């Protein structure tokens, strides 16, 4: 059985991770805000996975067992907050929008020494104000519990471009499309198109972090054309995939 590392304090820090590097499952007594200044960050728990490019950060509540993985050369910024201080009032991992101002505040806060100076206290106060105003983003890819959905996830994870209908896929996993639709609603709170789009977007972010051309990403992730992919990506993330570069995150 995997050993879960326990770190009582969630230190505020900046950390460099190579592409594909991982931080194994662990938990903190304090809350964390994790942000990728460069690259794409994936956070995984037993409930699912969250992927965040540079326009998003991930809130990880105290006590949550989670693991990190880097896609692209990752510059990881971690802000630790005491359990008693929850500016967002959230008790589950959540993806948050990061404005240009909030990005700079996180970078400054994690790159300067942790001290009790009045200047740092003011910086932290403004950062927390910006966090409170950050919209939550529905970028969670939940982990299904039903065996049929787990089998379906493995098929689509292996080939996100698989465009077969739910009825056709159902025959492969041993369930009707009606049964799978019901399980998706009860288990994940999503329809099949919503779930498949989320899965494809997660894969697209990883491929973009690896410098895969946009047209190739669209093809590998199952969109009918590059323009269709660009439209979905822009509506979800607020910028085009062509401007999404690990070394220079756009806003």
Structural overview:
- It is a single chain.
- With 251 residues, this protein is an alpha+beta fold.
- It folds into 2 domains: 5-140, Jelly Rolls; 143-243, Arc Repressor Mutant, subunit A, CATH 1.10.10.
- The chain is built from 8 helices and 10 strands.
- Strands 1, 2, 3, 4, 5, 6, 7, 8, 9 and 10 form a 10-stranded mixed beta sheet that branches.
- Strand 4 and strand 5 form a beta hairpin.
- Helix 3 (147-158) crosses helix 4 and helix 7 packs across helix 8 (226-237).
- The chain starts with a strand and ends in a 14-residue tail after the last helix.
The total beta strand count reads 10
Radius of gyration: 19 Å
* Fraction of helical residues: 25-40%
Please give the CATH architecture of the largest domain.
Sandwich
CATH first level of the largest domain: which class? Mainly Beta
Distance between the termini: 42 Å
Pick out the low-confidence regions. 246-251
Strand content is: 25-35%
- How many helices? The count is 8
Task: Give the helix/strand class.
Answer: alpha+beta
Largest sheet entry = 10 strands, mixed
Write the H/E string, N to C: EEEEEEEEHHEEHHHHHH
Assign an overall shape. Answer: globular
Kindly identify the CATH topology of the largest domain. Jelly Rolls
Write the layout of secondary structure elements.
Elements: E1 5-7, E2 13-17, E3 22-28, E4 31-45, E5 48-52, E6 56-60, E7 66-81, E8 94-97, H1 100-111, H2 118-132, E9 136-137, E10 140-142, H3 147-158, H4 166-173, H5 177-188, H6 192-209, H7 214-220, H8 226-237
Parallel strand pairs: 1-3
Antiparallel strand pairs: 2-7, 3-7, 4-5, 4-6, 4-7, 5-10, 6-8, 8-9
């Amino acid at each position: 059985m995997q050993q879960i590392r326990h770190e009582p304090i969630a230190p505020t820090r900046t950390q460099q991770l190579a592409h594909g590097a991982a931080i194994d499952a662990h938990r903190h007594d304090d809350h964390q805000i994790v942000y990728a200044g460069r690259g794409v960050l994936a956070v995984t728990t037993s409930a699912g996975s969250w992927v965040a490019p540079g326009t998003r950060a991930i809130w990880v509540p105290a006590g949550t067992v989670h693991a990190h993985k880097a896609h692209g050369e990752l510059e990881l910024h971690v802000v630790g907050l005491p359990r008693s201080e929850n500016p967002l009032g959230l008790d589950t991992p959540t993806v948050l929008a990061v404005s240009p101002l909030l990005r700079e505040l996180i970078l400054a806060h994690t790159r300067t020494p942790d001290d009790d100076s009045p200047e740092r206290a003011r910086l932290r106060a403004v950062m927390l104000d910006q966090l409170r105003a950050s919209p939550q983003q529905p970028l969670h890819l939940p982990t299904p519990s039903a065996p049929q959905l787990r089998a379906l996830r493995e098929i689509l994870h292996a080939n996100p471009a698989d465009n077969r209908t739910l009825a056709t896929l159902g025959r492969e996993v041993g369930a009707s499309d009606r049964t799978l639709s019901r399980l998706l609603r009860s288990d994940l709170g999503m329809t099949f198109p919503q779930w498949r789009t989320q899965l494809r977007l997660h894969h697209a972010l990883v491929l973009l972090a690896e410098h895969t051309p946009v047209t190739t990403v669209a093809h590998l992730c199952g969109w009918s054309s590059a323009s269709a992919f660009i439209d979905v990506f822009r509506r979800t993330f607020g910028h085009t995939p062509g401007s999404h570069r690990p070394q220079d995150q756009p806003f």
